[in-house]
Amino acid sequence: MTSADVYDVRDPERPGRLLAVERDALVPLLRGRPDEDFARQTAACPGWSVRDVLAHCSAALTRVVDDRLEEGVFSPASNDRDIAERSEWSNARILDELERAMTEAGPVIAKAGGALDGVGLGEWVHAGDVREALGEPGAYAGAGLPDALALLAWLTRERRHAPLHADLGDVDEPLRLGDPAAPRPPARYIGQATTLVRLYAGRPTTGTSYELAGAEPAELNIFA
Question: Would you say the C-alpha torsion 27, 28, 33, 37 has a positive or negative sign?
Fold first, then answer.
């Protein structure tokens, strides 16, 4: 199977694998960081600091692990409450919860039949938000990128997004995303894989270079 066809198949282990790879890269990066780094604002999540993003991630994954997915979960109001509940926690405690949840959420997501796969991708994207806010290289990249691209392709097919054919400068095979049965010709993207992730995640693309024909960037955002 080529990467062009990977959207047809769900790998139930992929979200957990993505979280585990990111856990092993991100948590050590954050341990020992000064408090002022956690207070930095993120460009991707206006109004949220690095600490807020991490608190949201740890809360969201803990909800998955504990099966606390009541109506309205992950709405802006629910996210704000989760962050507020951790306002008195130390940064170290938030990281402890995040590390544990990134370890334990994978098997739960795998058994959910695809309903929670977007959570795994979303938390990986948030790790990129944190890296970018801290000025670290590799935002929306790293060892998890192949799994992230495959998961993105599968999710856009399942959610019947507009079809898109992506020629990625840093990936050997083209990637097809979106609904292959849609009654419109596929849009065309030419650029780097990390920029494609930014577009689909609704993240800033300032300073990047890409070509997109047949679709508007706002059409691609899977988290809108």
Answer: negative
Q: How many CB atoms lie within 10 A of CB 56?
A: 24
Specify the pairing of strand 187-191 against strand 164-168.
parallel
CB 16 within 8 A of CB 109: yes
DSSP 190: E
DSSP state of 136: -
- Beta carbons of 222 and 201 less than 8 angstroms apart: yes
> What is the rounded CA–CA span in Å between residue 158 and residue 58?
26
pLDDT, position 9: 82
What does the alpha-carbon distance between residue 196 and residue 199 come to, in Å, rounded to a whole number?
5
Report how far apart, in Å, the C-alpha atoms of 55 and of each of 71, 80, 160, 201, 205 are: 20, 10, 31, 19, 25
- Give Cα separations from 94 to 57, 88, 192 (angstroms): 9, 10, 33
Q: Count the neighbouring beta carbons within 10 Å of the beta carbon of residue 47.
A: 8
Residue 38 host element (H or E)? helix 35-38
Q: Are 64 and 104 in contact (CB under 8 A)?
A: no
CA distance 80 to 33: 24
Crossing angle of the two packed helices 50-66 and 117-134, in degrees rounded to 10: 160
10-residue mean pLDDT series, the chain (224 residues): 58 97 97 96 96 97 94 91 97 98 98 96 97 95 95 96 94 92 94 97 94 95 91
